[in-house]
């Protein structure tokens, strides 16, 4: 019997496994906010309840693991999903670049959220830039 799988769901599963392993192994450093922008884009593009629920559980795991206030990134996701995404869809007609703008806005908001709770950290700024580059590559893989 042959089972057919969706390549994008398989990619999401592999990324979530990598995400969990990276958070466990990199718990010493604050570089462990990998894939948040990618999860935002996958949350926007996918309408499945279970995929969105699993993304929300991973976000809560990130918040508890990295010292953010509980549901802060969760509410940031919903703010971007309900307010920023529709307004940018009205303003920018070129839909291929929207994903990259969402990721950039999301990481800027994460940086502002982090600096409200903690002091400005140059290492965290480098981490944000590195995560933006990784998420741009992952979104490019998702869109292909």
Describe the structure.
- The chain is mainly alpha-helical.
- It has one domain.
- Helices cover 76% and strands 0% of the residues.
- The two termini are 29 Å apart.
- The model has no long low-confidence stretch (mean pLDDT 77).
Question: How would the blueprint of this fold be written?
Answer:
Layout: H1 7-25, H2 36-45, H3 49-66, H4 72-91, H5 98-117, H6 122-143
Helix pairs in contact: 2-3, 2-5, 2-6, 4-5, 5-6
Keywords:
single chain; 144 residues; mainly alpha; 76% helix; 0% strand; globular
Brief rundown of the structure:
By secondary structure, this protein is an all-alpha fold.
Gap between N and C termini? 29 Å
SS field, number of helical segments: 6
Largest β-sheet summary? none
Number of distinct beta strands: 0
Uncertain segments of ≥5 residues (pLDDT<50)? none
Shape: globular
Residues in helices, as a percent range:
over 70%
- What would the average pLDDT be, to the nearest integer? 77
- How many domains? The number is 1
Q: Can you write the helix and strand succession as a string? A: HHHHHH
SS-derived structural category: mainly alpha
**Share of residues in strands:** under 5%
